[in-house]
């Protein structure tokens, strides 16, 4: 499940903006953005404590962010032939994901200071596409897919709302999130039954990724899946990752980007 709204700038040097909503079983233990993986120094993420992986991962110094959304798996692989998806965002901000991921299907939004890509893995084929400038929505199908009710209903509203100037750039988008709760069938904040589990929106993250650095803010609703005004204050004060170090011209991060591009040879 989950929802990502992303604005890719048309002008070079302008930051990418991301609003990501995490949907999960409220009983499944997790932790907010932090350095939970000592074997991956410098990497921060929102950790799933049950499987040990991440939903969202960040390398602040490399100005790279990745966020994972579930997608239908079309393969006939058995459960003992796949592993948890949680390593995918961590790999994405590191050395890159495998060409054939050993997981169930997913959508992966990859963002760096130069733009954004969507990796779609359905268990049979991986496709990596660069997101064009503009505002997009991603859920569990293709980018801007009108077959997803919340995208069909609210993508135009996110585009019309635009971004506010300054640090609270996400406020117009958060207004759309609040408005969307008037229609539970198409709400961005969700409470859905899926495969015998009730999945609810547990976390909202707002991220800025650009040449000058990366910033991630996070806030949780008091009641999962429901709007409350505390989300505004939470995002205003919930800064959890910030970097403004000069980027190296040729580092392991740029090599990793090349690795990711090579690993998606079928993507266009």
UniProtKB/TrEMBL annotation:
Residues 242-268 are annotated as: Disordered. It holds the Pfam family TANGO2. Transmembrane segments: none annotated. InterPro entries: TANGO2. It comes from the Bacteria. Residues 243-268 have a biased composition (Low complexity). This is NRDE family protein.
């Amino acid at each position: 499940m989950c929802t990502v709204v992303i604005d890719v700038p048309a002008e070079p040097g302008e930051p990418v903006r991301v609003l990501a909503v995490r949907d999960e079983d409220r009983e499944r233990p997790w932790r907010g953005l932090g350095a939970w993986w000592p074997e991956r120094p410098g990497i921060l993420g929102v950790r799933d404590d049950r499987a040990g992986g991440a939903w969202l991962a960040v390398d602040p110094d490399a100005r790279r962010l990745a966020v994972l959304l579930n997608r239908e798996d079309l393969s006939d692989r058995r459960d003992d032939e796949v592993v948890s998806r949680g390593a995918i965002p961590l790999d994405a901000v590191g050395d890159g994901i495998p060409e054939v991921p050993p997981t169930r299907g997913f959508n992966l939004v990859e963002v760096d200071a130069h733009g954004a890509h969507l990796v779609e893995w359905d268990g049979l084929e991986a496709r990596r596409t660069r997101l064009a400038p503009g505002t997009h929505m991603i859920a569990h199908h293709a980018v801007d897919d009108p077959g997803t009710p919340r995208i069909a209903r609210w993508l135009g509203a996110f585009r019309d709302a635009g971004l506010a100037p300054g640090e609270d750039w996400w406020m117009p988008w958060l207004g759309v999130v609040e408005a969307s709760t008037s229609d539970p069938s198409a709400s961005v904040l969700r409470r859905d039954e899926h495969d015998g589990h009730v999945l609810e929106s547990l976390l909202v993250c707002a991220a800025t990724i650009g040449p000058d650095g990366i910033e991630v803010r996070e806030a949780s609703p008091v009641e999962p899946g429901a709007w409350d005004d505390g989300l505004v204050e939470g995002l205003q004060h919930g800064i959890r990752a910030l970097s403004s170090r000069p980027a190296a011209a040729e580092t392991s991060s740029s090599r990793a980007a090349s690795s990711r591009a090579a690993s998606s040879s079928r993507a266009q």
